[in-house]
Write a structure and sequence with these properties.
40% helix, alpha+beta, 4-stranded antiparallel sheet, 6-stranded antiparallel sheet, Jelly Rolls, 2 domains
Length: 236
């Protein structure tokens, strides 16, 4: 991600992809729809879309008018979703000389955006992310929906199957625990709804390109450090 102002076609259509680093998108002109781990979001001028590290999302332009956005670095991984800022142009001017300061101002000035609509697809995404015992068939039947139709509709909106969305969402949450805490990896695996330590290691390596132990060492939360629980098993 390169900080600064970018002008894109109003007919923008970008398939689902992911970024290893967090960033913020501030809409200066036009409109855009994004679908990410935070759900489905549509933003016009002054709209802010926040992405933590390893967010996966797709983008759709909102019409004929060109889309102009400001991209800024974003260090607050747990703070994601749709927000609003009163003076996006002032942020753009500041970003010309100091993108990091512009990002700090954004953090100070933004407010929640309550204009977001939700329907069952958004509820399904939230359930997939939080419920380790989730069964799509039960969820669909409780709402009078066919499981295969639910799966297809979710795939059209989110660009990925419900099963894949759930695995990636849980893997990402587990990765945050790995780099942000000294909890034993086995405990993180079970707490994230992953079956065991091997599943945790395989999923994080596939999703981030690096194994849990490598992330632990990089973050300074290695097992055996003072105050950290000892970890008997360290899968590669």
């Amino acid at each position: 991600m390169i900080a600064g102002v970018e002008t894109l076609s109003g007919h923008l259509s970008m398939p689902r992809h992911h970024h290893s680093k967090g960033y913020a998108t501030v809409v200066l002109a036009g409109s855009v729809t994004e679908v990410s781990f935070a759900g489905r979001m549509s933003a016009g001028p002054g709209g802010v879309l926040l992405h933590g590290a390893f967010d996966c999302h797709l983008d759709r332009g909102g019409g004929r008018r060109s889309l102009q956005i400001l991209r800024l670095p974003w260090r607050h991984d747990a703070l994601e979703g749709q927000f609003q800022v009163r003076d996006p142009d002032a942020l753009a001017r500041l970003a010309e000389t100091d993108p990091e300061l512009a990002a700090a101002r954004l953090h100070e000035q933004m407010s929640a955006d309550g204009a977001r609509d939700r329907d069952w697809v958004d509820d399904l995404a939230a359930a997939l992310a939080r419920d380790s015992g989730f069964l799509l068939q039960d969820w669909a039947e409780q709402r009078g929906l066919r499981p295969d139709a639910v799966s297809r509709a979710f795939g059209r909106e989110f660009g990925v199957s419900p099963k894949r969305f759930r695995l990636e969402s849980r893997t990402r949450l587990a990765w945050r625990e790995v780099v942000g805490s000294s909890r034993p990896l086995t405990e993180i695996a079970f707490g994230s709804g992953l079956s065991d330590l091997a599943h945790l290691s395989r999923s994080i390596r596939t999703f981030t390109g690096r194994a849990p132990n490598a992330w632990r060492a990089r973050s300074g939360h290695e097992a055996g450090q003072p105050g950290s629980p000892n970890e008997r098993h360290h899968p590669g």
